[in-house]
Queue: 2 jobs
Job 1
Amino acid sequence: MIQRNTFWMISEENRIVFYLLAAIATLIFIYGFYRRFKLWQKGRREKIKWSDVKTNAHFFWKMVVQQKKIQIDRLYGVMHRFTSYGFVALFIGTVLVVIDYDFGVPLLRGNFYLVYKVVLDIFGVLFLAGVLIAIIIRMKKQRLRLWYSIRDNMLLWLLFIIGVGGFILEGIRIASTKVSYGIWSPIGYTLSRLFQDVSLFSVDMYVFWWFVHSIFVFVLIAVIPYTKLFHILTAPIQILMHPVKRTGTILLPYDLQTITDEALLQSPSVLGVNKISDFTNWQLLSTDACTECGRCDSVCPAYQSEKPLSPRNVVTKIRNHMHQTYEISTFISPSELQSCTTCGACVEACPVSINHIDLILGMRRGLIQRNILELEAENTLMKVEEQYNIWGKPWSERANWSRGLQVPSLDHENVSKSKEA
Ligand code: SF4
Ligand code: SF4
């Protein structure tokens, strides 16, 4: 009968060890997720609007499924598609095994099982190819925008070893069971031919390889919420559920058209961001979706002209200091915030929809609340307050520029004449 033989060659004791390790990895994962979830809750509550989710659904399809923004960089786009599609398919494959074996629902049987084998082999190859491209890009330092860290390299190698491990186990299984439908796993079948008479991949080594593979998988599960792999979960949530805003709209804590000075003074709402808890919960979550890809830096005019601002740094600093209670200014300097031109290029480039402008402007308002202002900006505001113009010229000289140009003035007489006409 054609069916999956889960835990082939694995003794009862080893299965117990397996489930114990699985439980530990899952608990570490849940704790990591819960920890970040509690940190997001430090922010001001901004409720999910289901109308926003509906609007975002189309965007979700383009950004998460089709990965349009990532495709702009061709090689990187191929790498990310292969890796992510492969990862999702392998994850679904594992869930089906759990349903079949642990929940006793007979799924992986007959023809369905054969299709399952082919599909998983194909996506397994895509996954490995994607991870390999990522490793080569990093080894050759082919993208200037990337941060190159040992930690990121280790994560890629972890994914690669897991992918290869799965195929090794499949190869040994097919080589020793010689099942008639082995060919339905093309990669496993090819490996099974290569493994003939190789003692390292003999049936006696199966339990060893099985444990090695399982341990690497559990390490991966456990580290997801503690590394940038967390974006696998947070990026889709952020893209699907973040509050919808028209490009260029500035997020204000009050309505400029209706607010009065008095109301503003008495307003309980947070005017500017001075502490982590002054951000909204969605803003905090969005920083956890950052993949550190550097696309925002590479299009930022301030960063490119060597001003003291890196939008990626702003995002990652908020993310990394989320557990702190001290003032934002202790880790993000006023000059960083004041260097932003609010051009929006970073927001446009970000593949996970982080809104850097809202983050930066909120913190800038926080600076103004604490009377921290650039001298130039301060002088300009003083001129507006005193002379009603940014140049500081007297009110009486306001129309001087139009002398001799015969520009009609909007005085009472002219307005009446134009009405009559
Ligand atoms: S909005 Fe600010 S941070 Fe973003 S790209 Fe423009 S200058 Fe840079
Ligand atoms: S903020 Fe967006 S564009 Fe910038 S590094 Fe993070 S994910 Fe990339």
Note: The two ends are 94 Å apart (CA to CA).
Job 2
Amino acid sequence: MDNNNFDDSKSTRTSSSMSGETTVYSSMDGTPAPSLYSYHSSDGTAMLRDVAGRVLNAKNDLYLLPADEGEHSRLDKQHLVNLLAMGRLYIAEHEVQEALAPTTERTKMVLDLGTGGGNWAIGMALEFPHSQVIGVDLAPSTLRPPPPNCRFEFDDFTLGLEHYYSTFDVVHSRSVANGVKDFEWFINEAAKCVRPGGVLLITEGNLEMQNENKVGIEPAFGEGGPGQSWLARACFEAYNSMKLRGSAVDSGTLLERWFRACPEVEDVKYTEIYVPIGPWERGRTPEETQKKELIGTLMRQNMKEFVRSCRPMLTTSGYPPTLLDRFVRETDRELDELKLHMYVKWHHACGRRIAAPEQSFSDYENDNDVDMS
Ligand SMILES: C[S@@+](CC[C@H](N)C(=O)[O-])C[C@H]1O[C@@H](n2cnc3c(N)ncnc32)[C@H](O)[C@@H]1O
């Protein structure tokens, strides 16, 4: 949100929320609290603007992908792809389930930064009904209301997350690097929102399309040539446009290194998953092949729609309409013909928030300025 809408002090800064018609809840404990910027679900358009025929968030010039129904429907497909490819909503099954095991002491808390249409947040709220899930985004979701233990707040998380420090048992973000300038800072900031012993999960996709040998595919220029791809070209131009604007869109490649360097997390796990674009990949059994075909079909739809979603951003960057039309046309043809077999590479990292250090006697002495003489 706009900086001016907030009291930036740690204890009172709240985000606007769509959890109810008139009430905004404080971030810390779920109790009703006055907000400096609240709105009714019907006036969410205040956060949106039209660019090149699509609806975008109105508050952040770095993130120029749409925030409309079409985009949230695309993200739902991408969510299903990840869900099927990973087998669940998160890597580190044991750590996440342990962190969210019910306890009589308090409600377990989950935070999803850059929640988009809220698909992951809603999935977690349904899987862990005793927990409270908060999804934060620049713009409201247009598709569905959240279950009672899930709510959305609207904020630009790059303005700082002090109001959330040490609050959540699990903190997650996926595909948000396009809205972040300094992703290493973001990892550290997100980690500080996790309670000691809790889990941080970050996933980023890679805009360099990969061939069957898992090597970057050459983008098509001019008339295109054998082995060149128009989808790879459209993604390459999207990447250039995001990078020129200052986005850390390529952060997936450094995710593992930054997690290991983060002083707030330990027990780091990292994995890469290659997702086929289109139903071309075969498994070892008919069931496995069917699953790969389903994943590939959803990913093909997602990528066709992604090229269309880039139009407002690429228009703003000065790309001519004829070239953008060509990206759409040639990508559709390429992904229908499936002569080129391509993958999208996903980077997944997780870590556990370091336990709070035991206070030593000398810390106590310093903190309380005790005179021992
Ligand atoms: C590609 S979408 C991914 C949405 C969701 N995480 C998913 O995987 O379906 C990225 C989302 O991050 C949000 N976002 C990007 N930068 C942000 C920021 N600085 N603060 C809050 N939300 C941000 C965007 O508004 C968008 O909804």
Note: The chain has a mean pLDDT of 87.
